[in-house]
Septum formation-related domain-containing protein
Amino acid sequence: MVDRDGRRDRLGHVLRHPVRVLLAAILVGAVICAGVVAVLGGFDDPGKVDGEEIGDAKTSARSSPFSESVAGDCLTWPVYLPAKQSKVDCTAEHMFEVAGSVDTAAYPGIQFGEDAPWPTAEQFTAIRDEHCPVVVNNYLGGRLDPAGRFSVGLMYPSQQQWTDGERSLRCGLQLSGTTGTLKPFAGLVRDQDQSQQWPEGTCIGIDPATRKPTDPVDCAEPHAFQVTSVVDLSARFDPTGAGAPYPPVAEQDNYLKTTCPDVTSQFLGGPDKLTQSTLNLQWSTLAEPSWLAGSRKVVCYIGLPDQGGFATLVGDAAAGSLLINGKVPTPPPVEPPGRLIPSPVPLPPGIEPNPIETPAPAGGGGG
């Protein structure tokens, strides 16, 4: 479709494609797998991440940052070296925010008894699922966004600490990518918007096998889509910050279908740049549980659906150096203004247009 100014309506075109549905599925999937990695997904052996134990096996059960941590503490460690834990100020980047402890010694039975064997990763997963959601919910006052960036995690003693008698576990909050790898974050979770979001210009990688989005990458690498803006919905639906009622998705769409084109044009450097890129414009929305948890931000992004997933993009769309599935995009031809949506011809007063089209007479010779 072309408007009266001769510009192709990319927004009307994109709404017929399930780009937003695919993004929503990835975001939810990221949350599901994130809660597992601290106790299961990232372990090659019980209690290890790439060969390193979570707890320091050479440290007494009573003297490690893990065993001394309390609710509100933040712990960090070098990537892939979780044994080298340290407590840091929560304003600095960290890997884990402690929400509370679970003292398994207080539970009856032989599973946590003095002579109990060190639990398997699967058993620790079951412990996390049973106890940690309640601990984290109480810690955040019931305001954990179930579809947000953060998920519930569990830290537990190393095998040596367990043998030394340590039975206390730590429930907390963590940030991870779609593959389950833990990522550092700064600030207390309760003090920030938990919405899934990335800074303007961020390119989100693509899994070549599934054509689904992964984690942020350099835009020179293959990616699924590029974020053009982060939009704070509170500007429209909760301007006083007093906790306004949830705006239904239809209302969010009505607001974003005018907001996202404007901010995307600014990001790309002009109103015609989106058409020239041949990409589609789309945005994320918030579900009611996310809104009630305090999340207010969504993202506008550009990409192209392809074979049940996303087309593979390479390059920064704002810089004009873009390849789509290995090819330079070919913009559609610009039709003359008004050709497809003509203005009605004015008629004299009292004359109504004939709604019935009369076909031209069949061919035949004239007199």
Q: What stands out?
A: The chain is about 25% helix and 20% strand. Confidence is low (pLDDT under 50) at residues 1-61. Residues 193-324 form one domain. The CA atoms of residues 83 and 308 lie 41 Å apart.
